[in-house]
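Table S2 (continued). Query chain:
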Amino acid sequence: MADERTEEATPKKLRDARRRGDVWRSRELGVAIGLLAGAAVLGATGSAILEALVASFTLALDAAAGRLDAGPGAILEAALATAAGALAPLLIVVIVSGTLAALAQIGPLFAPDVVAWKLERLDPIAGARKLLSTRSAIELVKIALLLAIVTSVVLATLREGWRGVASLVARDAHAALSAGGSLVEALLLRTGAAVLAVALLDVVYQRWRWLRDHRMSQREIEREHRESDGDPHLQHERERVRRELAMASDLDAVASATVVIVGAGVAVALAFDRTREDAVPEVVARGRGELVARLVQVAHASEIPVRTEPALARALVTISRGEPIPARHYEAVAQLLHAVWSAPLPPPASRRTSAP
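Corresponding output:
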């Protein structure tokens, strides 16, 4: 039916949806990229981060043991500054990578409608309907699946490194932090890979669902075309008028032709000025289908010779009006013109009534 949304959304509708902030996006992809970026940073700068954290802990321990003259506040501030400086690159990379993952999906977007206050957002019935929708159920299943996968990966990673974690209490601070850093890196890497697998599936699903939600009915498409291009009936009428004007122009040009060449469903009128040495035959009119009979009729009325050459007519009908014929057709056209000029002229009455 005309009201069933079975047609793909038009580019205009998708642009309008994006302008309103209605875009598809997988949040899990940003999380996965952030975790993997964090693992990469730890692998590349882990030793520098480790040294800074060891210095921070050493400073705190020295302060606790009374080996420093500075006040507790200053010592705590210095320790925190050292730790923050060590972890800042990691946090920045995680945040930036997550942001870039979002931009890669939807591109730069400014949509004031997303944050604009709207009264309908306070409708409890609409809110309840949204919570109980199929979309919410699918999101809940996705979150449960993601939580189960991440929990399994974390437990498996901790189980593998359990002996190393248990022995940290008997080791010095540097060794303990080194082992802890390796464990955190493994957790980030494996968790990121697991989340990425789910995110890639979610990307496909989110885009499919977004396109499905924006499907249009045939009536909506017709209304959009009317709004952007005008009434289709008026377009057809304008096209009909253009065709008639073009046909009239072709018919008028036949009077200036030297010969009209016809074939199976095509006709071409050529003009050639043999008083000029550099003259080349050019197409002054052409037609297909119903226009062929009109062109031949005008040619007879104007006493223009009409010749039947199907192959030559099909080759020349593709040439635009006002264009000279290609050199590869010179010989065939020259022979045709020679035959036309050599043929005896029939009486005027027969010229008007004879068929080609």
